[in-house]
Amino acid sequence: MFKTISDSADCEVRSVIRFLNSNNVKQAEIHRQLVEIYGENVMTDGMVRKWVRQFSDGRTSGHDEAQSGRPVVNDGLVAKVNEKIRENRRFTIRMLCNKFPQISKTVLHENVTNRLNYRKR
Which residues make Cβ contacts (< 8 Å) with residue 43, sequence separation at least 6? Predict the structure, then answer.
């Protein structure tokens, strides 16, 4: 009996799938071996099938791809927001949303009140 690995990274399991797939191991056998080594909760049969298909189609990386979405609000962006506020001290969050459409209204409000310490008067 093999020792079970309980704290595996997702990319590690995907690399094992890639390796076994490149050795022409069938998808069901790959799943069986993963469960045997990594435990019952490693990955569903459907997810293994998905990764086998992706590696067969030419994918080479087992790492997660960058996801789209709103950008992270960094210090530079907060400084630009502060600059716009200083240009017009009678600002509203809605006005700032028009100037910075890449930032959600909620995140913009949180940054203006919490990071920049501007309060409604």
Answer: 13, 31, 34, 51
Give the helix/strand (H/E) hosting 66.
none
Joined tokens for residue 3: 């020792």
**DSSP reduced 3-state for 60:** coil
**What is the domain range of residue 109?**
75-115
pTM of this structure: 0.55
Read off φ and ψ for residue 23, nearest 5 degrees.
Answer: -95, 15
Identify the residue whose tokens are 């022409």: 24
Q: What value does the CA radius of gyration of the chain take, rounded to a whole number of Å?
A: 24
Domain count, the chain: 2
Tell me if 70 is assigned to some domain. no
Residues of the chain with pLDDT below 70 are 1-2, 66-72, 121
- Residue 64 within a domain: no
Over residues 88-109, the pLDDT tens digits come to 888 889 888 888 888 888 888 8
**80/52 same-domain check:** no
Tokens representing residue 35 in the block: 């469960």
